[in-house]
Amino acid sequence: MPPSSPSRLALPVASYVVLLVSALQTLVVPVVTNIQADLGVSATAASWVVTGNLLAAAVLTPMLGRLGDLRGRRPVMLGVLIVVLLGSILAATTSTLPLLIVARVMQAASFGLFPLAIGVLREELPPQRLTGAMAIVSGMLAVGAGIGLTVTGLVMQHGGDYHRLFWLATALTVIGVAGVVGLPRRAAVATGRIDWIGGGLLGLGLVLLIMPLEEGNSWGWGSARVIGCLIAAVVVLAVFVLAERRISDPLVSTRMLTHRPLVIANAAGLFLGFSMFAVFLAVSYFVQTPPALTGYGFGSTVLAASVVYLLPGSIAGIVTAPLGGRLVARFGPKTTLVIAALVAFAGFGLLTFLHAATWEIIVGAFAVNTAVMFGYAAMPALLIANVSPAETGIANSVNSISRSVGMSLGTAFVVTMATRNLIPGAPVALPRESQYVTVFAVGAILALAAAALVALALPQNRPTHLSTLEVEEEEVFGAAGLAVPDDLVAKENAARA
Predict the structure, then answer these.
(1) Which residues face 422 on adjacent strands?
(2) What's the average model confidence in pLDDT over 319-335?
(3) CB 464 within 8 A of CB 378
(4) Cα(59)–Cα(81) distance, integer angstroms
(5) Between 20 and 30 A from 108 (CA), which of 84, 207, 210, 340?
(6) Beta bridge partner(s), residue 179
C-alpha cells in the first residue's frame, strides 16, 4: 500500500529541519567580529553567542531526543521550533549582548531536531527506504552549513546589519513549523522520565568550566574569579556524576565514564568537536584580519571568509562522508579513527607552517573537516563493539555530549588565544600571528596524541562486514545520539564473534 500523504512528508520535512539546524549553527560564526563591533563589546564577550549556543546544545540535544520518545516526535519538534522562532525574533530585535546570548541559547534547542528527525523517519518509512533516507538527511548537515555560510556572506557583503541574519533565521524557522504541522500524529514510543536534575547540573558545570577559560585574559589567570569558577566546576560536575549513579534514567550512564574503550571513544569525540570549531573559528578570524595592520591575514570580507575559505570545509562533509563509511567497512572503526587523527594532524600541521596563501588555508581546513567526517563515521561502530545492544542509545548520547563539549572548548581556546598577546598601537584589538600559529600547533599536537591513544589503548576491531550504506546508517544514529537498530548491532556483533 502506498504511503499516506503525511508519511510522504517525512523525508522532505526531516531533511529541511536538519538543514535548518546546520544553517543556524553557521550563520553566526563569520559575523562574530561584526557583532563585537556593533555592540561595542570585547571579542571574549561576543564569542558567547557561539559558546553559549554550543553549551546549551550539549545538554538539550539528548534531553530533547528523550522527550520525543516520551511525548511523541511531532509535538516536541513543534515545541522546539517555536522556541527557536522566539529566539530568532529576540536576536533580530535586540541590540544588547545578554539578550542576544539568551536568544542563541534558545536557538540551541534546534540541535535536538536532528535526533527527532531521525526518529520521524524510523516511524514513517519502510525499512527498504530508511537507509537511503537517513543518508540524505545526514547530508543535509553539510548542505545546511554551506547554505548558511553562503547566505551569511551574501547578506553581509556590503557590511550589512547582522540583525538581518536573524530575521532570515526567523523566516526559515516559520517554514519548518509549517512543514512539521503536516506530519502525522504518532503515539509516544517509550516510558520513563527526563533527567532534569542531571541536565541542570551538567549545564551549570560546563558553564563554570568554560567561562574562566574564555575570560582568563581579562580576569587574570590567577584571579579569585578564575580559580573559584574552576573549583566550583569540579564540585558541580562531581555532584553530577554522583547524582547520575542514583537516577533510574540518567542523562549519562556512569559506566560510560569508567570503561576504558568508552572513555577513549568519548575523548575522541571531544577531539572531533574541538577540531571542528577550532579550525572553523580560527580560519574565520584569521582571514578577516587586515594585513596592513598586522602583517598577516587577508583582510577578507565576510562574503570571502564564508564562501572562499569556510565553504570548502563544509563541502568536505558531502564529498568525504561516503569514503569514511568505506574505510569503516573495510578496515574497522579503530583504524579509521587513527586515519582520521593523522589527517587532522596533516591539516593542522599545514596551517601551522603555511598560511600565507589562500590555497594553504583552504587545503588545511578541508583536511581537518575531512578528518572530522572520518571520525564521525567510525564512532558508532566503535561504541557498538564495546557496549551491549541495550546500551547503544545512551552510548551515542554520551558521545554526542562529548562532541558538543569539544566544540565549546575549541571555541573557548581560539577566543583565549585571539585576545592575548595583542599588537600594540593597533586601532582595534588584534593578536599577533603567533597566536594563530599556536592554535594550529595545539590542534596538530592533540591530533597526534589522539592517533597514539587510539592506536595503543583501544583493542583491535575487525572490519564491520557491513555495507557502506549500513555504516553510513550507523553514523547517522551515532551523530543523532540515538540507539543503533538491533539488526545492525546483531550483524556487526555476529561478524566479530
Answers:
(1) 431
(2) 82
(3) no
(4) 17
(5) 340
(6) none
- What is 152-217 written as a DSSP string? HHHHTTT---THHHHHHHHHHHHHHHHHHHTSPP------S---HHHHHHHHHHHHHHHHHHHHHH
Cα separation of 143 and 141, whole Å?
6
Spatial distance between the Cα atoms of 95 and 51, rounded to a whole number of angstroms: 18
Report the candidate in 211, 266, 274, 276 with the shortest Cα–Cα distance to residue 409: 274
**Cell 560536575 found at:** 237
Residue 485 has, within 13 A of its CA and on its CB side, a CA count of 19
The predicted-structure confidence for 23-60, as pLDDT tens digits, reads as follows 998 888 888 888 998 999 988 899 899 999 989 998 89
Predicted TM-score (pTM) of the model is 0.85
Burial 335-358 (b: 16+ CB within 10 A, else e): bbbbbbbbbbbbbbbbbbeebeee
In sequence order, which residues have a C-beta less than 8 Å from that of residue 415 and are 6 or more positions away? 43, 44, 47, 51, 214, 281
What is the Rg, in whole angstroms, of the alpha carbon atoms belonging to the chain?
21
Tens of pLDDT, residues 396-420:
778 888 888 998 899 899 999 988 8
**What nine digits make up the cell of 75?**
509535538
| Secondary structure of residue 430 in the 3-state scheme | coil
DSSP 185: P
Phi/psi-derived region of residue 465, left when phi > 0, alpha when psi is between -120 and 50, beta in every other case: left
Q: Where are the beta strands (DSSP E) in 89-165?
A: none
Gap between the Cα atoms of 169 and 218, Å rounded = 32
Burial bucket for residue 5 (CB in 10 Å: 0-12, 13-18, 19+): exposed
Q: What is the mean pLDDT of the chain?
A: 85
The C-alpha cell that represents 205 in the structure block: 558545570
Cβ neighbours of residue 446 under 8 Å, at least 6 residues apart? 271, 274, 275
First to last CA, the chain: 39
d(CA 316, CA 336): 17
245-268 CB burial, b ≥16 within 10 A, e <16: eeeeebbbbeebeebebbebbbbb
Asked if 315 contacts 146 with a C-beta cutoff of 8 angstroms, the reply is: yes
pLDDT value, residue 239: 94
Contact between 262 and 383 (Cβ < 8 Å) = yes
C-alpha–C-alpha distance, residues 285 and 419, integer Å: 11
Assigned C-alpha cell, 315: 563541502
Distance CA 433, CA 4 (A): 59
78/75 Cα distance (integer angstroms)? 5
58, 252 contact by CB (below 8 A): no
